[in-house]
Write the structure tokens for this entry.
Amino acid sequence: MKVRNFTTIDYVNLSPESTIRETISAFLNYRVDFGCITRNNKLLGIVHKNSIHRALLQNYSLDDPIKPFIKEKVITIHKDQHLIDAREIMMEGNVSQAVVLDHNEEVFGIMSKSDLVTSNMAALENALSRMTALIENLQDAVILVDPSLNITTYNHTAIELLQLKEKSLMGAPIDHFLPSFRRWLLETLKTGEIQDIKRFTFKELTVLASFIPIREQNKVSGAMVVLRDVTSYESIANELETTNNLKKILDSALELAYDGVIVTDNDGQITMTNHGFIELFNLKNQHDVIGLPITKIAPQIPSHLSLKMNKKIEGELIEVNNKKCIVAQMPIYQNGQKLGAIFKIIFHQLEAWKDIFHHMEHLESEISYYRGELIRISNDTDPFAHVISINDQMEKFKQEATIAAKSPSTILITGESGTGKELIAAGIHTVSERKGAFIKVNCAAIPEELLESEFFGYEEGAFTGAKKGGKLGKFELANKGTLFLDEIGDMPLALQVKLLRVLQEQEFERVGATKTTKVDVRVISATNKDLAELVKEGKFREDLYYRIHVIHLNIPPLRDRLDDIPILCKHFIKKINLKTNKNIVGVSPSVIQHFQQYQWPGNIRQLENVLERAFHFSKSSWIELEHLPKEINVLDDKITISPTPFETEKNLNIDRKQSINKTEKQVILQALMKTHGNRTKAAEILGVSRTTLYQKIKKYNIKEELNFTFTST
């Protein structure tokens, strides 16, 4: 609302030459306290009756001019300003009247306090009128109550929606009509906050209610309930949810179906299909056929029988891509109206299925039996059977690890990168028979600022971004079990102090917690660094070093167990074969010889990576030197071992056969010596049957070369 609408334009207008007598006469005629002093309608100042009173008391004559009593500093406002801005200007100037100017800076009129009051009343009435109209025209039901929960306002939507009697509604307690609202209205009045949307049921209606406080001068003077009828929406939502669930079930059923399935609308346009159909018709993907006519994609199917003639066909023989198939089709109806048709195409050989299922059941039975036997034998004879080795040094290491596993003391596993420290730690946990989980943490992979929360967890609200309900740390997850700290040499010093306390006291506090949590955790640490040297350099705490160094296990590097390379190669080739469609028989003797002359700075991990890379580049059944990467194919002395380019293919085949026989004989000898002549166990280590082992022993005259007597098993 603008100032000009509430300005008094009939005002006292005087000049500097006007006398006191003329001024008093004008004040009496206009019944005002001040007048504007203008010249050519330009404001020069104002004169107030108080100034005239003081002049008379000072014995000025009534005919004296008022010029000495003019106040030149005048509070002015513009006629097009908003009333709120005008009120602020007058309050800041601490005046009860202000001069209103127009665009030419000429006097337009006077704005007084009474004018402001009139404007505020008009604005209030206007706002009230609009608010009433708004409430009445809302589609939502609205009910207002006072602090005593008596109804003060409502709209007709509320009357119609809740089927209330309008005559008895005004001023009545809302409890008489809507008792379920009492709790939330009281909460709104008490807290002065909007309550979250609540769901209520009245007879057959479902409504969503919002509870909103009403404030006057920063005080809660009542509350408002806004109700929305969602009965129809809820019904539609339930139907949509049911439909979506049914569609998901149907999609899953189609994909799991062994046969080809296709669904069309009433015009024969494809709406759904599955992978079996795509496979049978040699199509690219399902999305390419959606919306196309079935007669175009699958003309072999007599779709007109179900789409045009509304017939249900149990089975009809057709041929698709030289495959004999049986097609079944049926129209789809809903509420007596046909929606389309569904077609099922059986093209897999049912007899073959039967034979395959019987064969699979037999194989699964055998696998279950042999798996159980293997686990039992492995646990009885070698708890670290998963660590592939025939090396004496590794055998001694596994024995020490077995002894250490049965003790509750902390263990430090050292060794070069790639020697399998995590594998050993997992084996120690298994042998220890601790009931809890095996939890591993790579201290070098977690950011330093997150290490403490990862180890000890945190409470809800401990820091910005903390999950609701908090989070368990690694120590709590490993309770009653084993915590494996890999790369412990990279742990920050600040965290080393807290880790030391947990190891000593078996207790800690979560981040942001006030109480202590007790745990029973066995800690196994691992590193490829020299911790003693780090202690000297001040990068690792000495007290923590001795705490985790109770039992020390050092894994030999691969260069110290070169006799393990043949059996490791066989293990990794078998593992890679299972992951791919290729079938590599093994590694040539020249490659084995080459591997046994290489230093292997990356140890077992590097060996597996080299074999996997060579596996993919090999175009034959064997991995040869030519398939190895350059950094492996060149030895430390820079001499590359490769087949002589001038030898004939015949000589090459003879040498290869002799090398294979020599290597195979050596591996069998090592397995027999490891098992003290027990052929059954030796066959298990080599991964061959006992019959095959006996044939090899006879072939290579191994019995005569052994220094012990074979025991019959």
